[in-house]
Amino acid sequence: MEIYIIIMSEIVSNDIAVPELSAKQVYQRQYAIKNKEQRSAYKAKYDAEHREERKPSDRRYYQANIDKITEWKSTKVACSCGGKYTLTHKARHERSDIHIRSLEIHEIIN
């Protein structure tokens, strides 16, 4: 069973209602952007210190959801260059000559 996802940047519609953000949500997003380096450094340190504690729960989650994970990994995506790839091979596709040439041609035309 092949499932195709359309990249959201290709969808342009005025019919989509964008929810308004509260003042707290705006502040939280601004804080996250402003302190991105500090937050990522803290998270990396925390993850390194607690790696052994998380292993059993990660393993249980994987075993309980192996079907969902496999289905998600095998989901096919239609790229703006006209190609298709699975989610696990997105980086490889974006480095491919076909993808790069297609985007260059598209850029020249527009």
Task: Write a structural description.
The protein has 110 residues and is mostly helical. It has one domain (4-8, 22-109). The chain is 61% helix and 8% strand. The protein is built from six helices and three strands; from the N terminus they run βααααββαα. It has helices spanning 23-34, 36-49, 51-64, 66-73, 90-95, 97-109, and strands spanning 4-6, 76-78, 84-86. Strands 1-2-3 form a three-stranded mixed sheet, with no helix packed on it. A hairpin with a 5-residue loop joins strand 2 and strand 3 (84-86). It starts with a strand and ends with a helix.
Task: Supply the number of helical segments.
Answer: 6
Strand order of the largest sheet: 1-2-3
Strand content: 5-15%
Regarding quaternary structure, what we see is: single chain
Q: What structural class results from the helix and strand content?
A: mainly alpha
Shape: extended
In the predicted model, the low-confidence regions spanning at least 5 consecutive residues are 1-13
Number of domains: 1
Please report the total strand number as a whole number: 3
N to C succession of SSEs = EHHHHEEHH
